[in-house]
Every structure is written in structure tokens, then in C-alpha cells.
Fold:
Amino acid sequence: MKQFSIRITNLITLLLGVCVLSGCVTVNMGGENTGKVQTAVIAPTLPALATIQPPQHVLSEERLQNAEYLSPLLQVPFTLVDGAFSGVVDSTELNAVVQPGIAYGDLNNDGIEDAAFVLAENSGGSGVFNSLLAVYSDAGQYTQAQGVIIDDRPVIDSVSIEDGVVKVQALVHAPNDAMVNPTTRMSAEYSLWGSKLVQTRLSSTFAGGGEHAIYIDMPRDGESVSGSLRVTGSMPIAPFENNLSLLISDPLSGQLLHEGFMVQAEDMGAPATFDNTVVLPDVAAGKQILLVLSELSMADGTPMALDAVWLSVK
Structure:
């Protein structure tokens, strides 16, 4: 069974750490665009760079392509001019381009249209890292959620926003793929959790193989839970050794529980089901948590399939 791998494991590990600590950056939608970037220290919470009053100044392609962002690749601010940037930031070369296909929709249920798009970045080597960026309305201004790297030189088929969820369809690289020919079909979903873009679903189809996916039937999004809960669902293909990874977290503050999660299947690679009781970590009443089941690659530990539900502790 081929294993899904994105060839940027160390970079992803670094960005996950930064994503928890850095939160978000406010998008500079106003003023003159000079194309120059001043060196800046990224604080845990960045100050507002500019204020735009939605919905009077709604997001448009022109505004999105002429704004200041935090680079997902280098974690430094830079300014796009007509959808592109080329220059030196903190002594590092950076080239960035907005990819075609900006998606619009309400990500945080405030009645104001937000946006999501893919940004391609190169820092001087052969890699061209594509990341998902979201810009959302918050307290009278637009803010950029921390970018999420998709892959080095993927083929992006589509980006859309449906029912408050960003959906990405793409071809990404398996371990033995040539960089010019990604062969793994990826379908992913991302939701805005506070100021953070969080992956809540992932399925992968490898060349010549079936779909790796996880479907959680119980609990449902938004359920109130306490003490313990029953987690049921299914998979079209059982994971290696019938074992998944269970993670319960507050995406803004960090991990609360991480352990193995067994599924049942008649044979290796056959369909699987699960019906397990999970004891919740000690969490204060009223807190919202995210429960994630992941099938991890045996090659490098990156997710091949993922499903998540958000829960309210009572």
C-alpha cells in the first residue's frame, strides 16, 4: 500500500509550532503599495496594520492582490502588488504569486463575505510551496488566518467555500512521485477556529488504489459532552495494523489528549468500522474542543486521511 507523503515534513513541523504561537496577522488593505517590506519581529499577537470597515469595503480580487500578508513559508510580512511579490525579506529571497481561483464565502458566520486562495512561494531553490490563505472579517477589519502549506508543486484543481468551510481539491506527491508529476488525489476541508484555519477533513486516493478516508458518525458537530463519549464510524480501507491516531485539542492553545484508536476489519486493507469509548481529558465546562481521528503514513507520519468533530464540554 502506497503511503501519502508531503515532502516537507520538517517545514510542516516548524509551521505547526509557529501557527499555535503566532495566531494571525491583520491584512493591510489600504494605503499606497510600495512593494517593499521592512524587517519585523513577529509577536505572538500582531498589531493591526490597517483597518478596513466591512461590508462597505468588501473584499475584491484587486484588494486581495494588493495587501500585506504573513508568509507561510518564511513567517515574515511582505506586500503583494498586483498579486505578486519578488524581493529579499530578512536576508532571504522570496517570490510569491497568488494562484488563480479566489473563493468567496462567509467563514465565521457573521454575515460578511470572506475569501480564501492559494499562494505559491519560492525562496530561491527548486521548491514552489503552495499554501492556503484565508482572509476574514473580524471586529470591523479584515484579518489573515495563519497560512496552511499544501505541498511543494501540487496541481490545485479547485478552492471553494461552502457552508463556512474551505474545500481544496488537488494532486499532491506520493513518496516516489517525480516533482513534476504528483499522483495522489487529495480532498481537504478547513474551518476557521477563532483566528486559526484548522483542517477538519482529508481523504487521499493513490494512483491505482482506493480512497483512504475516515467517516465519524458519532458524535456530531456541536454536541455537548462530559466525562466520556462514544465514537463510532467507518473507513473504506482499514489502516495499517487497524490503528488510528486520536487527538483532542483546543486548536488555539494546544493538545489535550493524544493516543491510539483501534478499528475493526476482517482483513488488511478491507473496509473497517469503529465503536470505541473515549475518556475525555479534564477540561473546564463551557470550553470547545476538537476531536480528530487520523490515519498516518508509516513512511513519515503525515496524515493520509482525517475527520474531525468539534464538541462543547458541559
